[in-house]
Each structure stands twice: as C-alpha cells, then as structure tokens.
Amino acid sequence: MVPSASLQGRTGMSFAINDDGLVIVHEFAGGLTDGAVPNAPIVFDRAGNIYGTTSSGGLYEAGIVYELFQSGGQWQERILYNFTGGADGKEPSGPVYLDNAGHLYGVTAEGGSYDRGVVYRLNLAAAPLEAVLHSFGGPGDGNNSSAVIGDSAGNLYGTAAGGAYDEGIVYQLTPHNATFGWKENVLCTFTGGTDGAGPRGGVIFDASGNLYGATYTGGDVGVTCVQGCGVIYELTPQSGGNWTGTVLYPVVGTYDGISPLGPVTFDAAGNLYVPTAAGGSNNTGTIDQLSPSNGGFWNETTLISFPNESGLVSNGGLVLDSQGNIYGTYNQDNHSAVYEVSP
Amino acid sequence: MATLVLTLTVGTLASAQGYQYSELADFSLAHIFGGVTLNGAVYGAVGIAPGSYGYVFCNQ
Predict the structure, then answer these.
(1) What is the pTM of this model?
(2) Nearest alpha-carbon partner for B30 in A39, A67, A77
(3) Is residue A51 part of a domain?
(4) Which residues are within 8 A (CB) of A153 and not within 5 positions of it... i.e. 6 or more apart?
(5) Is A314 within the bounds of a domain?
(6) Domain ranges of chain B
(7) ipTM
(8) Domain span including residue A47
(9) Chain B CB within 8 Å of residue A262 CB
(10) How close is the nearest chain B Cα to the Cα of A290, in Å?
(11) Interchain CB contact of A221 with B (< 8 Å)
(12) Cα(first)–Cα(last) distance of chain A, in Å?
C-alpha cells in the first residue's frame, strides 16, 4: 500500500500522502475490477477531471481508459473502457487527446486487425463507447504508435514505428465517410539516413499548423553516433495535401545530447525544448533548447546535463510553467525521479 | 503517400550558464512512464512500484 498518511488539502479534500510527501490522487487496485500500470502522462479536461490509461488490468486484463473526478471531497475513479485485447486494441499507451466535442482519442501498442495496435476514439457522452479509427499494420504502415494529437479540423496526427523502411512514420488520420471510416495518410516515411530514424513520442503543432518531432537515431553519421545521433524535424503542409519535411537540427552528439526524446515542447517565445537519452557532460543525457534564428536556422543550447548516475535514462515529454521552469522525469536502475530545471 | 523533401538547416551549438537542476520527488524501486502534467501542481503516474499496481500522484 503506497499511501502512508493523510491530510486535508487546500480544497477541503482529504488526500493520502506517501513517504516522499506526495499526494496520492489514486492508487490502482489491478485485477479485473481496476487497471494496473499507468504508463503515460495524465491529461486534464477544462473541469479539472483527469484522464489516462493503464497498460494492463481491467476486465479482460488488456488495459483500461480511466477518469478521475472529484466527489465528496475525494478523488473517485470511473473506468471508461476495458479493452478486450482483440480488434478493439490491447495495451493502451501514450497520453490521451481530448477534443472540444466530447471525444477522447488514444493509441494501443497491440491488438487491432493486424495486432500492431490501433488508434481509438471514445465518445464520452454517448454509446457506442469505443470506435477503432485505424488498425496499424497494413503495407507501408506503421505499428505501435506512441501518441496522437488532433487539429481544429478534426484530423489526427501521430508517429509510429515500422513503415516502408522500418524506421518509423508520421501519420495523419482524416475523417473519411460513413462507409470507409477514417483514412490514413502517411506524411513522412523515415529512411534511416540523414532524415532520421525512430520517431519518439509523437508530434506537436506550432501556431501556423506545422508539425514538429524528434527521432532517436539517424541524421548525421559520425564518430559519436554510428547510426546518427537523431534529428529534430518539422513537417509543413503544402497545397494538395502534401507535406514537406525539414531537418531543423541534426543532433551532433559532442557537446549536446544524443538521441532526442519526443515529444518536443514549445515555450511562448517559439523555442523548442527536448530531453536526450545520452550525451552531455556525463553521457546521461541533456535538456537542449532550439531557438529559431535568421534564415531558417536554429541555434541549439544545452541547458543542463543530467547527473552522473549510472543507468539514468530520461523520459520524453517536458512541460514548462509560465516562469520558464522545466519539468520532466527519469528512471534509473533502482529509482525514478521528477526533476525541475530553473533559469 | 505524400512527397517528403528534406532540407537541412544547421544552426549553432552552445552551452547554457545559470540553469539549475533539482529533484522534486524521488521514487525508490519505482518506474515512471512518460513526463508530468501541470495543473496548479505537478501531476504524474508511477507505473511500477513495490507492492502497488501503480498510482497517480501530485506534489500539492
């Protein structure tokens, strides 16, 4: 049992706290009645409710989608969906995406028509509750997508492993029609050369509708990285539905990090932030900042190198607050941590 | 499939001064998947922990 005490929170709710002084919002029970192993960042809706997934547990032991809401001074859990592990998907992964029309979108690592994972949608207001929008695994298609986001037109975007060169893809799903459902458009197939390989953690939009992401390897091949140290890329929509890809920065791996982890994160000034899995002063990774410059160039600055601790591996997905503080997580052999990097 | 044309736009590289690194929370023998979420506090999920099926936490 994780909670070791309780306290009265500022909102009048009672919380359990653990030995580290953290509030336990919800502890999962596992088994057939609850999820187990929450494996992605949580997401809030405008009302302050929490949405997330667990990769296992649930009625069919194939994972669940859950909601945490406040009631009676406590956080309560509502299981929104139990995956069966079949055509509807198995082992949900990555953060969910909420649109403004009451839909929740997400991806699974397995299940679907080819057992390569699916993109699913939950209608939070009405039945039928779950719809599979796409099953990965067809010719040239990806698999094991890591996350999905949406645009204002209702299209979905994400990254996946696999593809024609088995180096990963960036995909778009568009609402097609009632007969054929959703249509996949592969926006980018990574070849493993200078264009990058192994997109990690999905993509994000800038204010102009361009997509940004990171690949774990590929890019410039040199002494430091035999397979390339990874790239930061941009995809720009063109007329006729085509997209143009640009490598904003091929990671060098000398003073900066090695193997960037997506999704990348923007600040209000348009700078990009990305953690890396290796490189830096201690070869345990870095947090790098990319700043736009004249002529389409981007300047990279390594903000910090992670501590010199054996086995430390950063997770992707940084968040920034309004003061410019950066928050993230890492795992090590025998512990994990939440860190803050302050200017 | 859409056409992909790659253009390299290499910039400069520098090392920053003055950024401070600190750890807000440490979880023994636990594994966190993914990053954290801000909503008045720092929220996250521990996926694997001794004696637990995982939990959602915050530092409020």
Answers:
(1) 0.91
(2) A39
(3) yes
(4) none
(5) no
(6) 31-60
(7) 0.90
(8) 1-167
(9) no
(10) 9
(11) no
(12) 37
